[in-house]
């Protein structure tokens, strides 16, 4: 009898144990951001299921954004407590995203997940939704307000630095490099570049040419072809995105020249040309699984779990020795790594 009482007391204590924000896992590499970062208290947004969750995305302008939304939809489909998962696409129009969010609020969503179109445009409507008591998860792109519930972001400085660290290591800290940047005026481009600058500190590596390739295959190829004439034979290439890296490798192949060490990104198309060319490269990682992680954060809030206010993703890069464990020659070029999608969904979505 005493043993039974003790067992019952232990069970009660276990169930009554407090929940801690650090115990909630959203995605590999997603960690609480440094600095002032309050915890959303346990139970603040608890709501009995079934739930209706709104998912507002700024647009499907590239394959990464498409996959990010697919990962979010799959994560939602696997949770029986989510009765409705409403996806809206703003088609790169700030006015439409504002209207989309207002409509989702009017539909009575229990939580709102937003990939904002710009730093400023949708901040007021996000603040309005938060003030109405709706838990709002902002992810993938930033806003200029902190009046949301939870934020999940990548770390572009980390992204650029791991690329730069690779170039430094390959060149033993000295040499001449090309720098292929993304789109001028976009904060992601500047912050990735800032990461490169950090990696180059204290080295004898010189940036001999710096051009914007807009993260585009076509523009990247034009830039690399021009640089091959104006600034030939670099010791290395820091490229801010997979499509530009892909294009540059092909330029060197077409010219019949050795391919210098070049940074890359976690994209299946790039992995294919990297392997076929036997190039010296690596892949920085900006996982589209952020969409699924944002859904998990919304669910955690509705379940009454505590979360940090701000998270940042700093996953490890994919180096050459791990490339083939990710590369899928049976699937098309649009797949991004790492992914949380199961095998059957990968074959359905990315079949050649």
Automatic annotation (TrEMBL):
SUPFAM superfamilies: Periplasmic binding protein-like I
Gene3D superfamilies linked: 3.40.50.2300
A GO CC term assigned to this protein in UniProt: cell envelope
Domain Periplasmic binding protein: 53-305
Region forming the signal peptide: 1-21
Family assignment from sequence similarity: Belongs to the bacterial solute-binding protein 2 family.
Protein name per the record: Ribose transport system substrate-binding protein
Species in which this protein is naturally found: Pseudoxanthobacter soli DSM 19599
């Amino acid at each position: 009898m005493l043993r039974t009482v003790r067992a019952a007391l232990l069970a009660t204590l276990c169930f009554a144990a407090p929940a801690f924000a650090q115990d909630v896992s959203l995605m590999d590499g997603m960690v609480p951001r440094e600095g002032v970062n309050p915890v959303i208290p346990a139970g603040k947004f608890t709501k009995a299921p079934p739930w209706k969750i709104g998912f507002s995305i700024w647009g499907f302008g590239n394959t990464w954004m498409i996959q990010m939304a697919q990962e979010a939809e799959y994560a939602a489909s696997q949770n029986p407590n989510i009765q409705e998962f409403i996806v809206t696409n703003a088609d790169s129009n700030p006015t439409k995203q504002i209207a989309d969010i207002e409509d989702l609020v009017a539909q009575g969503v229990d939580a709102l997940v937003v990939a904002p179109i710009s730093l400023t445009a949708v901040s007021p409507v996000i603040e309005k939704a938060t003030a109405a008591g709706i838990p709002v998860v902002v992810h993938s792109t930033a806003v200029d307000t902190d009046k949301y519930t939870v934020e999940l972001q990548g770390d572009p400085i980390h992204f650029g630095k791991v690329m730069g660290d690779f170039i430094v290591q390959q060149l033993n800290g000295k040499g001449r490099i090309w720098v292929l940047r993304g789109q001028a005026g976009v904060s992601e481009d500047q912050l990735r570049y800032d990461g490169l600058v950090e990696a180059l500190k204290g080295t004898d590596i010189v940036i001999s040419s710096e051009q914007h390739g807009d993260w585009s295959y076509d523009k990247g190829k034009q830039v690399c072809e021009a640089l091959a004439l104006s600034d030939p034979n670099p010791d290395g290439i820091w490229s801010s995105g997979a499509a530009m890296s892909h294009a540059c490798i092909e330029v060197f192949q077409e010219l019949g020249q050795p391919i210098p060490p070049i940074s890359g990104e976690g994209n299946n198309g790039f992995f294919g040309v990297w392997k076929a060319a036997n190039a010296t490269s690596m892949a920085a990682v900006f996982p589209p699984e952020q969409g699924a992680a944002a859904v998990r954060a919304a669910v955690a809030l509705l379940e009454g779990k505590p979360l940090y206010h701000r998270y940042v993703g700093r996953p490890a890069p994919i180096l050459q020795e791990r490339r083939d464990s990710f590369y899928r020659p049976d699937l098309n070029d649009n797949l991004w790594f790492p992914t949380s999608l199961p095998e059957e969904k990968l074959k359905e979505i990315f079949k050649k």
